[in-house]
Automatic annotation (TrEMBL):
Protein name, per record: Sulfotransferase domain protein
Highest taxon listed in the record's lineage: Bacteria
Taxonomic path: Bacteria, Pseudomonadati, Planctomycetota, Planctomycetia, Planctomycetales
UniProt source species: Thalassoglobus polymorphus
A Pfam entry, by short name: Sulfotransfer_3
Amino acid sequence: MNTIKKTVFKVFDKITQHQSGVDSLVRCLGPIFGKRFLTSGGIENTRAPYSDLPQSNDLNQTNSRSDIVLLTGRFRSGSTLLWNVFRQLDGTTSFYEPFNERRWFDPQTRGANVDGTHRQVNSYWEEYEDAEDLAEFYHEDWIRRGLYMDEGSWDGQMKRYLERMIEHSSGRPVLQFNRIDFRLPWFRHYFPNAKIIHIYRHPREQWCSTLQDISLFGPEDGTIEDFSSADKFYLRTWVNDLKPHFPFLAETSVHPYRHYYWIWKLSYLFGQQYAHHSLCFENLVAQPNQELKAVFDLLNIEIQDWTKIESIFEKPVTGRWQQYASNEWFRAHESECETVLDAFLGRSDATLKS
């Protein structure tokens, strides 16, 4: 043990000898240990007591705009469909996955591929044309580190990146994300007047959708440590980054559906807590006009002609989970997950808003 300790301290000492190493440590550990202590102390930034000292140099702050719409949902939740709905609206610029590693603003990296399961979508990047300056602020680490951010977290680069994107918009800016469900407290703090719309989908159907080919990893095929070849939507990345905050994610002896369910349920709870409106995917595709009207009413958007919006809806395939495993298999795993969440979060029998 002493040898291990000495090795760890030696590596740590070597890293901290250079500023770049210190910066890397801050970037990695900041979301866990670097919380801004003032947020819970009731301290706000008031004017300095001398008249010759300035106030904020940006009195018309982009992040305070009241027309911003943030769409949040997990991968394969129907978030692309929701983004495409807003893409049909006049006077709106609908940005797709701003944190995506394909860097939609860069013609050299984004490629031309479009997911064939994203129906009625021919490209993701039209709204990013002439926005190459976003590269100055973008960090790919946002897709794998700091996936949990509360109102006390600080990432000035992320804030400025999103502000520049908003400034590039023509009309109302709409930003669709798959990686902010555990960052919603941060967004509520730094974009205080934005409206957040949350979409969720039944976890069993969504699990099968993330696998794409359900034969890739069956109900008896192993644990999270065996999941790499079937992990199409970064489950292990999320587990590794979130487990300091939700320690039960460190469990390695169970089927990865449990890790998936834990993150799905926590994401749902965050959406219920911090979003202004939550949409059920199944209800959205069954009765789009009714479900969207509630969203548009919240945003004070009036739709005169629903034709364009209705044209992008196609009935999805359902019931794939029944081909994957039995109801008993799913319920056994889900019940164990709920028991852990009860212990960790406390239990409430209240039905949350929909």
